[in-house]
UniProtKB/TrEMBL annotation:
Residues that coordinate or bind ATP: 50-57, 152, 181, 203
Binding site for deamido-NAD(+): 132
The protein's name in its UniProt record: NH(3)-dependent NAD(+) synthetase
Any single GO CC term annotated in Swiss-Prot or TrEMBL for this entry: cytoplasm
GO biological process, one term: NAD+ biosynthetic process
Molecular function GO labels: ATP binding; glutaminase activity; metal ion binding; NAD+ synthase (glutamine-hydrolyzing) activity; NAD+ synthase activity
Reactions this protein catalyses: deamido-NAD(+) + NH4(+) + ATP = AMP + diphosphate + NAD(+) + H(+)
Lineage of producing organism: Bacteria, Bacillati, Vulcanimicrobiota, Vulcanimicrobiia, Vulcanimicrobiales
Keyword Magnesium assigned: yes
Source organism (scientific name): Vulcanimicrobium alpinum
Pathway(s) annotated for this protein in UniProt: Cofactor biosynthesis; NAD(+) biosynthesis; NAD(+) from deamido-NAD(+) (ammonia route): step 1/1
Enzyme class: ligase
Length: 286
């Protein structure tokens, strides 16, 4: 009887859905999106955006400049007294690189004026007041210039609920809302966003030494991979089997499930057969 040789051991890694994008194609698509949403659909040729000095608003500034022309893009810098001075200088790098218009409007007096009536406000409430004050300024500056405010929130932040409701998510058009943070980095490199902006740790800049990843509790690189698999229907065990701890998977899953309400318009009680956004829809809503 002939001896059977043992089968070789194959170290096969588990497949994982890719987050890779084609940056050149994505840039062309998003520029066409902005042109269509502003000029074709709304007949508005100007855009206003809040320029924080971070990578998300920097990327949106580059996309708007390419889609609408830099002379039609207005960046508003809105520092609070606790904001990092480097945020202003990094925002200026974006302005210099794109040629867009810029104005700085300090929000300290407006924020502190309200907070004098809310002495018990903790850091979270103060951050929300700052975010909503910035959006108030952004919409008013848009009305001043007959322009449309443009959103700058990315898909990772939106899924994790890492934004202020009726603030960061308020603008009617957002070109990067379907891009994970790691995809934002890839596209920013393609478009030439200054390296100082790309390479610094992402931060909401609401208090000293704050970083997004410390607030969230996981790196964007890991969060994006987990989020991508959650969206594609992977169970927690299957995600953990691809190199994550169960605590990491639970953290991301809990944030997605617990903030689902923030990604919807206010819930309206139905008392008729013609409720807006339920039964009364137009072709552009579908």
């Amino acid at each position: 009887m002939t001896a059977i040789a043992p089968l070789p051991i194959v170290d096969a890694s588990l497949d994982e859905p890719s987050l890779a994008i084609d940056p050149a194609l994505t840039a062309r698509w998003l520029e066409a999106f902005l042109h269509d949403e502003l000029i074709e659909r709304r007949k508005i040729g100007r855009a206003v955006l809040g320029l924080s000095g971070g990578i998300d608003s920097a990327l949106v500034a580059f996309l708007c400049a390419r889609a609408l022309g830099p002379e039609n893009v207005y960046a508003i810098r809105m520092p609070y007294r606790a904001s990092s001075p480097s945020s202003l200088s990094d925002a200026q790098r974006v302005v210099d690189a794109t040629g867009i218009n810029v104005e700085t409007i300090e929000i300290t007096d407006a924020v502190d004026g309200y907070l004098r009536h809310a002495p018990d406000a903790d850091a979270r409430r103060k951050g929300n007041v700052m975010a909503r004050t910035r959006m108030l300024v952004l919409f008013d500056q848009s009305a001043r210039r007959n322009a449309l405010p443009i959103g700058t929130g990315n898909k990772t932040e939106r899924l994790l609920g890492y934004f202020t409701w009726h603030a960061d998510d308020t603008p009617p058009v957002n070109p990067i809302g379907d891009l994970f943070k790691t995809q934002v980095w890839a596209l920013a490199r393609r478009l030439g966003v200054p390296t100082e902006v790309i390479d610094k740790p992402p931060s909401a800049d609401l208090e000293a030494n704050q970083t997004d990843e410390a607030d969230i509790g996981i790196t964007y690189a890991k969060a994006d991979r987990i989020l991508n698999m959650i969206l594609l229907g992977y169970k927690d065990d299957a995600i953990a089997a691809r190199g994550f701890t169960r605590d990491e998977v639970r953290l991301v899953r809990r944030r997605v499930d617990g903030t689902h309400w923030k990604r919807h318009l206010p819930t309206t009680a139905l008392v008729s057969g013609t409720a807006i956004n339920e039964f009364y829809l137009r072709p552009v809503d579908l």
